[in-house]
Structures are given as C-alpha cells and as structure tokens.
Write a structure and sequence with these properties.
- The chain folds into 2 domains: about 40-195, Helix Hairpins, CATH 1.10.287; about 210-349, endopeptidase domain like (from Nostoc punctiforme) (endopeptidase fold (from Nostoc punctiforme), Alpha-Beta Complex), CATH 3.90.1720.
- Helix content is about 60%, strand content about 10%.
- It has helices at about 10-35, 40-105, 110-115, 120-130, 135-195, 195-205, 235-245, 265-275, 285, 335-340, and strands at about 290, 305, 310-320, 320-325, 335, 345-349.
- Strands 1-6-2-3-4-5 form a 6-stranded antiparallel beta sheet.
- This is Cell wall-associated hydrolase, NlpC family.
C-alpha cells in the first residue's frame, strides 16, 4: 500500500527571502506613489482655464441652438396663423363659387360655364373654360383669386413643414450640445473638487478683487493695481454697467440669462436689456454688435471684451478690471483683464 507523506514545510530561510521580497515591493510601490508630484497652483490654474475655455465653447453652441429653436418655434407659430387665415380665404372663395352653382341649379339653368365651375380643380376649370371661351370676367376673377389663395396656402404649408423638420433637427442637436456642455461643466467641477481649500482660493480667486466676489451694488470696481483705462462710457453703457453691478455675487449657471443666475453672454444680454438695448444671445452674435475698439487703452466702462476665440465675454469695468460671469463654481464678479484669457475682440455699444 502506498504511503502518504505530509508535504514538507518551506524552510525558514525560504520564508525569510519571500517576506523580504514582499516588503521590498511594498516599499517600492509606496515610494512610487509618494514620488508622484502634486500639481502646482499654476498647473491647476492652467488646467482650469483650459476646461473653462472648452466649457465656454460648448455652452455658447448650446445657447446658439437654443436661440435657433426659439426662433423656429416663433416662425412656425406665425405660419400656422397665416395658414388659418389663408384657409379661411380659400373656403370663402369656394362658398362664393358654390352659391353661383346652387342658384343656377335651383332654376334649372345650369349652363356650361357653371358646370365648369364644378371641375375638380381651379386649374381644370381655367383650362377648360378658356378653351370654350365661356368664362365671364367676374367668374374669371373669382377663379383666379381662388387659385392664388390655394397656391399661397400650399406654399405656407410647405414652409411650415420644412420649419418643423428643422425644429426636429435642432432639438436633437440641442440635446447633444447640452450633453457636451454638461460633460465639460462636470469635468470643471471635478477639478475644483479635487483641490484643497487653499488651492481653490488661489486658482479661482487669484484674479479677483480682495480674493473673491465684490459685494452686490458696489458703485465702483476695485483697483487692479496696474494700468488700465477708466474712461466712462456713454449713457447706454453706463446704464448697462450699473445693471450688471446689481448682479454681483449671483451664481454662474450655463444657459442662464437671469435674473438670478447667468452664463457669460446671458449676463451681457440681460444688462444691456436693462439699458434698452437688444443684444444677441451668444458671444457669436454679440461680437457683431456695436463698433470695434482697437486698443485696451481706448476701452470705456461698459464695453464688451471677448476672450479665447470669442467663447467668453465680459464687460469692461475700468481700472484694468472686467465684470463677468466666469465659469462653473464661481459667481458674477470683477477680475483682472489680464487674468481671464487672451483677448479676441473688443466692442463699443
């Protein structure tokens, strides 16, 4: 019978070697983890600025599609009203022609002309009546008017159908752009959440007055500590700037146009609306409003400044400062002009 032997236990020497190897691996792993450098404040700021630029671009495209959808909805509503009126006109013309036929039928004197009126379409009637020479001037006018009304109605229906198809495409585009904007906003928020309180204060508020947002209703922007024009704008710009100042401290929310939250272009649109001026909804629209300003030395309080390939906009506040709704995680506030990003264009309203 075969014997069953217990397996030999590993020697103490071998156990010592294995334990030492494991300890060395853990130590190396820990050292590698510790060796990974933490991002500096400047690196974090650079990452945040890049994310903010990408988020601004996504938000402006979303705002643009949202505005386009609203315009299409207004157009369809107007077309529906026109269609209803045109249909009523067509019905009136048909009733008038029907009355002629009814009168002659009642007297038993339905002449060939009235029979022609009962043709399937006005085109059929016109072609037949013209060939027979049996169209009176009044009847010709009635038929021509009916024909014109029906052509107008058909055109309006076709236009409404095309606009509805455009609305469907815009709605799908809007959903995709909203998802992209939300993704960028979430990435920005995740980066902010990963920072310590000190890092966040340095990165987010480094270019702000007194390290944060100014109080609402402040009559003067803070001093930037550097050179910068302080020329007053005209009465319209002064009114818009005063309105924007009342929004200091309110939160940035993408797609928002006020009065309690804003994205960058939404704040500019709202502020100028309070001054009686209608601006476009997006930076892509607003950059075409007003007249160009050629140099920062020529800036006036209330002028619009566009940053980072016109993906962001703020209002010049004087003293080298800008009043704007910066990005996710912040509020409407003043920031240094040289802090926000590269200037793309400046406009005087």
């Amino acid at each position: 019978m075969a014997s069953h032997r217990r397996p030999k236990s590993p020697s103490r020497a071998r156990m010592s070697v294995l334990t030492a190897a494991a300890a060395t691996a853990v130590a190396v792993s820990a050292q590698s983890a510790q060796a990974a450098p933490k991002p500096t404040t400047d690196q974090l700021r650079s990452q945040l600025q890049q994310l903010n630029t990408e988020a601004d671009q996504a938000v402006q495209k979303y705002d643009q599609s949202q505005e386009q959808l609203q315009q299409q909805q207004t157009k369809v509503s107007g077309l529906q009203d026109q269609i209803a009126r045109s249909q009523a006109d067509v019905n009136t013309r048909l009733e008038q022609l029907g009355e002629i036929a009814n009168q002659q039928y009642a007297t038993g004197q339905v002449d060939p002309t009235v029979q022609l009126l009962l043709s399937a379409t006005p085109d059929d009637y016109l072609s037949k009546a013209s060939s027979l020479g049996q169209l009176t001037s009044n009847q010709a006018s009635a038929i021509s008017q009916l024909q014109a009304e029906e052509q107008k109605l058909d055109g309006q229906k076709s236009q409404a159908e095309q606009t509805l198809q455009q609305m469907d495409a815009t709605t799908k585009q809007l959903a995709a752009q909203k998802a992209e904007a939300q993704k960028k906003v979430q990435q920005t928020q995740a980066l902010l959440d990963s920072m310590t309180a000190a890092q966040r204060a340095a990165v987010v508020n480094g270019g702000s007055s007194s390290g944060g947002a100014a109080s609402r209703g402040s009559s003067r922007p803070p001093l930037a500590g550097g050179s910068g024009s302080s020329k007053a704008g005209d009465s319209v710009e002064a009114a818009a700037f005063a309105a924007a100042q009342t929004r200091l401290g309110l939160p940035y929310v993408y797609g928002a146009t006020g009065p309690d939250s804003f994205d960058c272009s939404g704040l500019m649109q709202w502020a100028y609306a309070q001054a009686g001026v209608s601006l476009g909804r997006t930076t892509y629209d607003q950059i075409n409003d007003g007249t160009p300003v050629n140099s920062t030395a020529d800036l006036q309080v209330g002028d619009l400044i566009f940053f980072n390939n016109d993906s962001h906009v703020g209002m010049y506040a004087g003293n080298g400062m800008v009043l704007h709704a910066p990005h996710t995680g912040t509020v409407v506030k003043y920031e240094r002009l040289d802090w926000i990003g590269s200037i793309y264009a400046m406009r005087h309203l």
